[in-house]
Amino acid sequence: MPGSQHTIATRLAGLIADLERHGTETSVGLRQLVDSGARHVAGCQYAGITLADESKIVTNVVATHRYPIILDSIQNRYGEGPCLEPGWQHHMMHVEDLSVDRRWPRYQRHALAHTPIRSILSYELSVDRTSMAALNFYADHPHAFSGESLELGGVFATHVALAWSMMRREDQFRSALASRDIIGQAKGVIMERFNLDAVEAFELLSRLSQKSNTKLIEIARSLIDSEHPLKSPRRTERGA
Q1: For residue 181, how far is the Cα from the chain centroid?
Q2: Which keywords has UniProt assigned to this entry (predicted)?
């Protein structure tokens, strides 16, 4: 790896370590990485991350400018474009001049009409089995990306994929902790109102979840928010 790429890779590793250490929110962390990519990939003016699910619904995850968001909207509307292209070469898609690239005619027409972008460099990011994502670099003029740009873009894509996976796990962990606390509070309410122990209270919550086909965490939230019918016995008792 050339010296400059090695330096940038080292900085990226340090940035990812900082994101993990501080428990950075996923959208904030991805924005920092994408901003860094836009600054360091030669020829790049804008950057963003695109997410497409198995039904080809395309959304923009993060972007440094409104143009990537517009292009993702065009891909979503017409169901075609670089990020929906099945023929990825080594997990990369390079559009050297959008004005002459005929692979996606509707995408091309509207992209040229609504943005000045002419060069696109996309890297496939593996998220899960039901969706795919791409890290994209854009430029206003054709043939903006050199061979070095392609290599450095791949370095960023590798680090972004790793960081995204890490931050998603952190988000899931924080969500699990929050859910555990809410369910614990709901159990406490049931134990106090119905004179049940912790196991019986949890079993009651579980039965309500199964019978109503509602997630356990939603039942717990409703109870805590004083909207669940389990409160009715107490009202009846006071009115008696």
Answers
A1: 25
A2: Kinase, Transcription, Transcription regulation, Transferase
CA atoms within 13 A on the CB side of 218: 7
- With contact defined as beta carbons under 8 Å apart, do 49 and 136 qualify? yes
Measured CA to CA, the distance from residue 102 to residue 80 in angstroms comes to 12
List, for residues 101-153, the tens digit of each pLDDT value: 999 999 999 999 999 999 999 998 875 677 788 999 999 999 999 999 999 99
**β-strand pairing of 58-63 with 46-53:** antiparallel
Q: For strand 58-63 and strand 92-95, is the pairing parallel, antiparallel, or unpaired?
A: unpaired
Q: Are 142 and 116 in contact (CB under 8 A)?
A: no
For residue 124, the cross-strand partners are: 134
Classify residue 91 as exposed, middle or buried by CB count within 10 Å of its CB (0-12, 13-18, 19+): middle
Bridge partners for 52 per DSSP: 58, 132
DSSP 89: B
The answer to whether 2 touches 118, Cβ cutoff 8 Å, is: no
* pTM of the predicted protein model: 0.66
Cα–Cα distances in Å, from 129 out to 21, 50, 53, 148?
28, 16, 9, 31
Residues 216 and 208: their CA atoms lie apart, in Å, by 8
C-alpha Rg value of the chain to the nearest Å: 24
